[in-house]
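Students often ask what a holo structure prediction actually looks like on paper. The answer is less mysterious than it sounds. You provide the chain, you provide the ligand, and the output is a string of discrete structure tokens encoding the 3D arrangement of the protein together with guanosine-5'-triphosphate.
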Amino acid sequence: MDANVVVMGSESVGKSALTVRLLTRRFIGEYGDIESIYSHNFETDGRDITLNIWDIYEDLSVETSLSEKKIQWADGFILVYSICDRASFNIVSKLIQTIKSTKDYLNTDKVPIVIVGNKRDLHHRRTVSSEEGRLLALKADCLFYEVSAAENYHSVLMVFHGLVDRIKDTKLALKRPSGFKGIVKSMSAVFARRRTDSF
Ligand SMILES: Nc1nc2c(ncn2[C@@H]2O[C@H](COP(=O)(O)OP(=O)(O)OP(=O)(O)O)[C@@H](O)[C@H]2O)c(=O)[nH]1
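The corresponding structure tokens follow.
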């Protein structure tokens, strides 16, 4: 399975640090203004996953046709803020709205989004509590993690694994009509066939 992932958030929250941590297991400190697509292969539940990660430098809270293209390209989103930067947390809510209004999800309301509070190691400078992050995720039906790209590889790995699991579920739900909508769809397919049969 291929999964396109966009990493978004305000400036300097650690988007590149998270991406580079996943790819190399390292934290190198300074990353410059890079914007690239990286590919990374891993296995989950016996399935090979190719993750295409787009690390976005541009501020996507300002709507442009390019940002719309990026949103359409993505199967899932990692929205990063810094626990020491309240403005970066506020931008995450705006990004969720932009994504949910832009992305055309046909049958499902569940957009695979993970909210990440980064720089957990700087807890003495914290201005956004864990509860606020968790509450936002709960309201928007997203996953939530607090991590330190600087200090910990495993929590970063969990972020990407969590997102891939959600992407898998969404892709499966899109393939197989399920629930009430799916039943209505299958019934109308049967009736449509009957109607054409009778002519
Ligand atoms: N203490 C601490 N610093 C971090 C952490 N993650 C990133 N940084 C630092 O925060 C700064 C910004 O990190 P980047 O990864 O470049 O952030 P970015 O969001 O990609 O930044 P832009 O590309 O400029 O938008 C760098 O100085 C990093 O070393 C972290 O978990 N803890």
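The pocket of guanosine-5'-triphosphate is lined by residues 9, 11-17, 29-31, 33, 57, 118-119, 121-122, 148-150 (CB under 6 Å).
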